[in-house]
Amino acid sequence: MVALDLTYRVRVRSRRRINDFVNGFVRLGEYVTFVLRAVAAVPYTLVHYRKHVLAQIAEVTFGNKSLLSGGGTMGIVLAMSLAAAMMLGVETYRGLQLVGMTNLSGMLSAIANTRELAPVVVAIALAAKVGTGFTAQIGAMRISDEIAALDVMAIRSIPFLATTRMIAAMVCILPIYMIGLLSSYIATRLVVVWYNGESSGTYDYFFHLALTPADLVYSATKAVVFAAIVTLVHCSYGYFASGGPEGVGQAAGRALRTSILAIGIFDVIFTFGLWGLVPQVPGMGI
């Protein structure tokens, strides 16, 4: 009897693990299909739901999930950019001081702030401030059967709910990204020039030598793509939410973790893809 009972338990556990594995793949397929359908529906959305796109832009820009109004995401990005850029300036100056090359602080500021710091900071702020709101909105619609009602009324729910928000986030992210990038430049310069007493002329020379228009375009491209990724991740978690209000809250937390992980992964991919495995510094011959 003991042997039979033990065999039965092993079979049950094995079946449960296999079912969990299969269900995980099914869920992954649902999310991938959701993302592909949302991206493919961009032309359809701009033609049929352009009024809703404009409404989402207005809501994201000036509404409760504001990107541009005071105290909204702009304040978060500004604070995060200042703190991160100050630490970048401190560690950059200390590291270069060890090898007697502090005059290159401006070059490292131009490269690090433009290529990595500004796009990542604005994407994380977007995920925390706006993305979680998207998850809560769509998740509430899912558990109250509003999404099913849209499908019954022949309204394509994914373009109407996800694609419109993705377009709005991609449009609204550029102004806040520019503000974050500018504040990063200012904060790093203050730390190196004002606090550590480095020559302002030397700092500015190497800063402008390393900063190119191509870097700015690539950096802005990263920010826009990150906005699309964050929006799609949060909308997908809200779209497939279940379990009532508690399930919506759990979906928002999982979406935030997933979007931050996706930002890190795609940041590495885009850095290598745009600047190469061995990046070159303009004007330095290296």
From TrEMBL:
The chain crosses the membrane at residues 21-47, 67-88, 166-196, 216-240, 260-278. This is ABC transporter permease. Pfam families: MlaE. One of its GO terms (molecular function) is phospholipid transporter activity. It comes from Gordonia desulfuricans. One of its GO terms (cellular component) is ATP-binding cassette (ABC) transporter complex. Keywords: Membrane, Transmembrane, Transmembrane helix.
